[in-house]
Amino acid sequence: MRAPARAVQAAPNRPVISQLLGITWWNLGWIPLIAAALLTLLGISAIATTEPNFALRQMVYAAVGVIAAALMVVPLPAVVERYSPVIFLVTLASLVLLVVPGVPQAIVRARNGSRCWIDLGPIDIQPAEFAKIAWILAGSWWLRRAADVRSRTGLLLPIVLTAVPVLLILMQPDLGTALLFFPTLLAMLLAQGARRVHLVTVVVSAALLAPASYPVLKPHQRARIDSLIAQLTGDTRYNRTIGFQADRARTLVGAGELFGNGKEAAGSLVRFNALPEEHNDMIFAVVACRWGFVGGISVILLELAVAGGALTIAVLSKNPFGRLAGSGIGAMIGFQSFVNVGMTMGILPITGLTLPFVSFGGSSIVASWIAIGFLFSIAARDARAGGK
User: Fold this and answer.
1) pLDDT band (50, 70, 90) for residue 202
2) Which structural domain, as residue segments, surrounds residue 233?
3) In a domain, 227, yes or no
4) Three-state SS for 114?
5) How far apart are CA 177 and CA 61, in angstroms?
6) Number of domains present in the structure of the chain
7) What are phi and psi of 125, to 5 degrees?
8) Under 8 Å between Cβ of 53 and 60
9) Which tens digits make up the pLDDT trace of 317-346?
10) Residues 290 and 252: beta-carbon distance below 8 Å
11) What are 298-310's pLDDT values in tens digits?
12) Residue 238, φ and ψ in degrees, nearest 5
């Protein structure tokens, strides 16, 4: 009769919220969460170097993102899995809305030649940012129920299905975001047990076919590739035209030297060099100018911590859905960070991709924090209940 009494006395020692949610607070989910928080704070400070008003807005967006992440911890992963196809269909419908003819400009207005945002009055929503996360969750749901991905036929169908959101995003056009889907899919297929030889064949085939896509690219996209090749060979003829942004970014990265410049000096340097999109796509150049090599390396290590933490959670997860989704989130954040830093450093063509958690943008940071919340939910329940 005493054993039940001891059990009753032990229960109050556990946090009430932990008991209600069925989670363990000390888990691997803190790794990507803390890294994402540091990146967010660093990003707000970098944006404030040249755009104080944007920095205030980013603080609000970040707060909304953190709240969204906290809400993602509440439902069981099984609940998220159950509704992930519906969520994805909703985001897919929003992507269709962006490209379908006849939509009033009051709802979808082209900016810089792209139809990427839905105007909701006081705020704009970029559906592609949420579609990335929704696609990972829905893809994880589908791969658990799909045909054997170890066969050629079973491997082909996920690639075909992924092409649907990719084509809709390309129609906006948003080449940078579209490029994220297939590397992420490869990571998820690998986590599901696809044969490595099949995946290598896909990658090699894509690499060999990539040059054939050059003639069908838009003129400005071809020009960016030409500019990259020129700068890698020491040719400066594009530095005042299509290569201006890349040239200014590299100049500011070099101006940071080892420990960077003061806030006022860094702001003056960025303004004097007239770096386009300094608070968005080129934010890494501002970080490097403000905090130097140390700041740039810190950002890279923190992005690696987010991506590596997600992949570690995926590898150790006993939940098949969590394993697939964690692999997708880690691969997408890692690849996006690599491309953004690479284009800023001048080793990759400029594609318009933001730096996760650092670049200015409400949709981007909220969607990224939703992913962090889901990772924490998976890790916390794995630690407590064996991934169930």
Assistant:
1) confident
2) 26-385
3) yes
4) strand
5) 20
6) 1
7) -115, 135
8) no
9) 989 999 999 999 999 999 999 999 999 998
10) no
11) 999 999 999 999 9
12) -95, 0
Structural domain contains residue 21: no
- Residue 117's φ and ψ, nearest 5 degrees, are -125, 145
What is the model's pTM? 0.89
Q: Give the residue from 325, 377, 7 showing the smallest Cα distance to 142.
A: 325
- Secondary structure class of 385 (helix, strand, coil): helix
pLDDT of res. 111: 80
- 348-356 average pLDDT score: 89
d(CA 40, CA 34): 10
CA angle at residue 20 from 17 to 26, to 5 degrees?
55
Give me 3's structure tokens.
């054993």
Q: Is residue 6 domain-resident?
A: no
Exposed, middle or buried by CB within 10 Å (0-12, 13-18, 19+), for 173? middle
| Residue pair 246/252 in contact by the 8 Å Cβ criterion | no
Listed in sequence order, the residues at least 6 apart from 41 whose beta carbon sits closer than 8 Å to its beta carbon are none
Using CA of residue 276, residue 280, residue 286, residue 292, what is the dihedral sign?
A: negative
Residues 219, 204: contact at Cβ < 8 Å?
Answer: no
Evaluate whether residue 15 is within a structural domain.
Answer: no
